[in-house]
Design goal:
It is built from nine helices and six strands. By secondary structure, the chain is of the alpha/beta class. The chain starts with a strand and ends in a 5-residue tail after the last helix.
Length: 221
């Protein structure tokens, strides 16, 4: 029986993946690199280690000495964007999360993003009272596609893996969910690029599809 729902954040709770790419594209351009989204999308769902490893592998540039400076530039640019334009929302997400809460599901955010970014997201979406735990991959030993952050979230909810449903938009995230032996549904978000979500047991295009699906099943399908 599915009793707990673990949400990825970027590309699931907010439509941030294309924004992140635009910001990193400019930052890397200032370093003399023209980064292609086809390469970038392979890092979606993982962490900064994966991003900078991709830069080394595909562009032959070791930016490790500049990493902290570039990361600060990214966060400044992201904060400025959110201050001016607000958080990039995904249709029906807020209503769906609130309905799930009213129906008694225990929920957590399980994201590769930092704790501060996760708190900011749920605050700006006005969903603070809907989540029982906010879990960051920064605190995990291994990033997605390893299962660590989902196992952390399940532990925080005092739930066995068999009772957890993961909502993910990326290949890395769906693989992490399956490695955690959890049910996984893949959100086909166009902003996340051509993600291979074949590890998910079910895929959907709109969050309005989520509640009817949960009503129709007792376990993972």
């Amino acid at each position: 029986m599915l009793r707990c729902i673990l949400f990825d954040m970027d590309g699931v709770l907010m439509d941030s993946e294309r924004l992140h790419f635009r910001l990193w594209h400019k930052i890397f351009a200032d370093c003399g690199l023209e980064v292609d989204f086809l390469h970038y999308q392979n890092c979606i769902g993982s962490n900064l280690d994966a991003l900078f490893a991709m830069i080394r592998q595909n562009y032959g540039a070791d930016l490790s000495e500049k990493r902290e400076m570039l990361q600060r530039a990214f966060f400044r640019a992201k904060e400025e964007h959110i201050r001016r334009w607000g958080i990039p929302e995904i249709p029906a997400v807020k209503e769906t999360v609130r309905q799930l809460r009213r129906r008694g599901y225990r929920m957590a955010v399980a994201s590769s993003s930092s704790p501060a970014e996760i708190r900011q997201c749920v605050t700006l979406l006005e969903l603070e009272d809907c989540f029982d735990a906010l879990c960051s991959g920064v605190d995990a030993a291994h990033p997605k596609p390893a299962p660590d952050v989902f196992l952390m979230a399940a532990e925080a909810l005092h739930a066995p893996a068999a009772e957890c449903l993961v909502i993910e938009d990326s290949r890395n995230g769906t693989l992490a969910a399956r490695a955690a032996q959890m049910c996984c549904w893949g959100f086909e978000n166009p902003s996340s690029g051509s993600q291979d979500l074949s590890a998910a047991q079910w895929r959907f295009q709109n969050f309005a599809q989520l509640l009817p699906r949960l009503q129709d099943i007792n376990g993972c399908e």
